[in-house]
Amino acid sequence: MNRRLLPLLIAATLLVVAAAGWVTFEASRKSAGGAQGAFGSAFRLTTMNGEPITEAAFRQKPSAIFFGFTHCPEICPTTLFELDGWLKKLGPEADGVNAYFVTVDPERDDAATLKAYVGNVSDRIVGVTGEPDKLAAMLKGYSVYARKVPVEGGDGYTMDHTASIYLLDSKGGFFGTIAYGENPDTAVEKLQRLAKS
């Protein structure tokens, strides 16, 4: 690994962890007091299969939602792989949970790119993309942190972003999060409780 990139990666990781804590706090604050309605905001985006998707999809049955991007070097592929494995551990219970990977990088992550990326990991997680302004509004409505970070010495960029999986109950209410690096047994228990919500 390039030694000049190490401080950037460490700083990015610390930002992601801090953002995850803030998101959990914000989500808890927004849904304090229990059943106050659905978490987040209205949106109209596109799945990796080219189909329209709105906030109604998060209110049909419990949902596990991860926000990431296909050029992510570690956090996103690891989280997708783990989420797929945890859902497999649930067995038939997993049929009661929808799982989504929403890009925070719509400029590079079109539907075809998402389909190839997510499809390499899971056949039950649905990728979601859309026009940059619509996605930005959706991320804001769900208290998701995402920011472009230029790559040192290059023309490209990476993304700092919330690294937690959001859990929403069957009415779209905030149910909790699974943190990046969380104990796998705890993550499976959270998904089991989610499936019954």
Binned strand content: 15-25%
Strand order of the largest sheet: 2-1-5-4-3-8-9
Structural class assignment: alpha+beta
Treating each run of at least 4 consecutive H or I residues as one helix, how many helices?
A: 5
Radius of gyration based on Cα positions: 16 Å
Report the count of strand segments.
Answer: 9
How far is it from the N-terminal to the C-terminal residue, by CA?
44 Å
Second CATH tier, the architecture: 3-Layer(aba) Sandwich
Low-confidence regions: 14-35
The overall number of domains is: 1
Shape call: globular
Care to describe what's here?
Keywords: Copper, Disulfide bond, Metal-binding. Residues 34-197 form the Thioredoxin domain. The chain is α+β, with helices and mostly antiparallel strands. The chain has a single domain (5-195), classed as Glutaredoxin, CATH 3.40.30.10. It is built from 5 helices and 9 strands. It has a 7-stranded mixed sheet with strand order 2-1-5-4-3-8-9, sandwiched between helices. A hairpin with a 4-residue loop joins β1 (44-47) and β2. α2 crosses α5 (184-195). The protein is globular, with a radius of gyration of 16 Å. The model is unreliable at 14-35 (pLDDT under 50).
